[in-house]
Amino acid sequence: MDSAFTGKVLEIDLTDKKVDVTDLNMEDAKLFIGGKGLGAKMLWDRTEAGTDPLGPDNPLMFVTGPLTGLSAPTSGRYCVVTKSPLTGIFNDSHCGGFFGPALKKAGYDVLVIKGISDEPCTVVIQDDEVSIEDASDLWGKTTSETTVAMREKYHEDSLRVASIGPGGENMVKYAMINIDTHDQKERGGQAGRGGAGAVMGAKKLKAVAVKGTGTIGQAHPEAFKKASKEAYRITREDDFIPNRTKYGTPIWINPMNEYGILPTKNFQHAVFDDADDISGETMEQDIVEDNVSCYACPIRCGKHSVVKEGEFKGTKLEGPEYELLVLLGSNCCMGDLGAVSKASLLVDELGLDGITTGNVLGWAMECFEKGILSKEDFDGLEPRFGEAEPYIELIKKIAERKGVGDLLAEGVMRASEKVGQGTSEFAMHCKGMEFPGYEPRGSPGMGLAYATSDRGACHQRAWTVRAELEMEDRFSADGRAKLVKDTQDERAAAYSLVMCDFVPFGVPIFVDMFNTATGFDLTEDEYLKAGERMWNLARMFAVREGMDRQDDQLPKRLMEPLPDGPTKGNAFTQEMFDEMLDEYYTLRGWDENGIPTEDKLKELGLEFTL
């Protein structure tokens, strides 16, 4: 029987310059599905406690899902899995575009890269031809310059290029991997969070380029086609999709501001007076030139934009997305859409996670505002909230690790630990990963979701905002633990297929497409159990690194009442949070310290983690 799995893993050792192809463990594929789950299992097997994230033994893995590259809507996604240099725990960073389907069509479910090259290099995959090439001429280039150079060198415009910029080369702890974003006809993407770009930089790997021309099988082609058609039908008929297409993710800027959930001034406020100036509506009117799509995606929410006036006139970019409009925008009190667009372009070109960068800048501005760090500490810059010039210069310094940029390149947890003077109280992170663009004091479930996320503060593991807005008491802690736990399990399974957040269908369609594509026969309950299995495996990875309840905590700032807006007066109390956490642990089958019990691990087939 044919299958959507290729059954092959491409293994590359940069130290020994060895290339090998091994068989995929199909039992793991059934238990962990693909993408996030399969990557977690492979990372567990290939690392041990204390493995240096920037050392030769930490693998960098590009992991597709069973639906990657097929005709299902949003089937262009894959994830990058590694041990995070930012947090020291499991990290999966998801990406769209066209790279994942190219890897799958080249014949590989997973690409594993280990070791460290003695010189800058690239990996070039053209179907079954794989080579490790010199990249000395590319070192120091931006991500788009690297993509252009690689396509010119190999005379191949359709070459899919995942590259790092100076941020990755200099091992900024939150450096990201950028994919094809210079292309003005198709959508690129970023493996953005957790510092996968720094791992790539530590390996002296400038880029991975892929061209795949093969076909991907399906166990039951006609049944898969029927399931996929139903998924498209639901997507086309969903009432929210037209707005998602028209405005993209920035559609949420004004609603989040109106509900008092928009992080502002380093999370000191949850409303921003200039929110509409950086909203999706203003973007669509002033800078968006075209919509672009990832592989096999009918939603087409990507935006190619050009700033047409002001100081940053002529800036061309993909985006900005919601998260960057918040963290580089309202969180830094930056209401100039041109400045936010320029900053968004810079983080992509230099290879930095924009979410963390915006948090770092907000923290730095507050340190300057409070007199904790001086103009001299900032190399003559005066980083004030809402001022564009120092904000832009600091991004460049971070990527190059020059002057104060070396401190800021470590992320807010380490930077605040080094500076001291109470700055940890407004360093907005969980487990070392900085907050995304939703204020938890206006959405209590998000607070619990950030604190318990398997990779540090993250909105994609359980985005509770919409559900909470529809609840009778949106500020209550009641029912939040179950909402978070159930959503985390469901999303873990979906991110293993790998599917996009934005599809408007759910478990029945996911399971139907998975089974007809692979030939497996998972029930809906077994599919959700697989998500729970993945979540517990990632938790055991953190436990193996010494983490427990004390790491599932929120910054002290969230214990302070919000000063204004519709969420004025809202704050977490430690008692409230502890009650939520206790309930969450009970629902998960974990002990009071947040460690999965032996019975729970055996139930999930995770005895090997004991």
Overview of this protein structure:
The protein has 610 residues and is α+β, with helices and mostly antiparallel strands. It folds into three domains: 8-211, Aldehyde Ferredoxin Oxidoreductase,  A, domain 1; 239-427, Aldehyde Ferredoxin Oxidoreductase Protein, subunit A, domain 2; 441-503 and 523-609, Aldehyde Ferredoxin Oxidoreductase Protein, subunit A, domain 3 (Orthogonal Bundle). The protein has 23 helices and 17 strands. The protein has helices at 26-32, 35-46, 99-105, 143-153, 166-169, 196-202, 221-237, 241-247, 253-258, 280-286, 322-327, 337-350, 354-369, 388-400, 405-408, 412-419, 444-452, 465-469, 480-497, 507-518, 524-544, 574-588, 598-603; strands at 8-13, 18-23, 60-64, 78-83, 90-95, 110-114, 121-126, 129-134, 160-163, 177-179, 189-191, 205-211, 288-292, 302-306, 316-318, 429-430, 433-434. The strands form four sheets. A six-stranded mixed sheet has the order 2-1-6-3-4-5, sandwiched between helices. Strand 4 and strand 5 (90-95) form a beta hairpin. Helix 2 packs across helix 19, helix 12 (337-350) runs parallel beside helix 14 and helix 19 (480-497) packs across helix 22. The longest helix has 21 residues, at 524-544. It is globular and about 65 Å long. The relative contact order is 0.12. The mean pLDDT is 97.
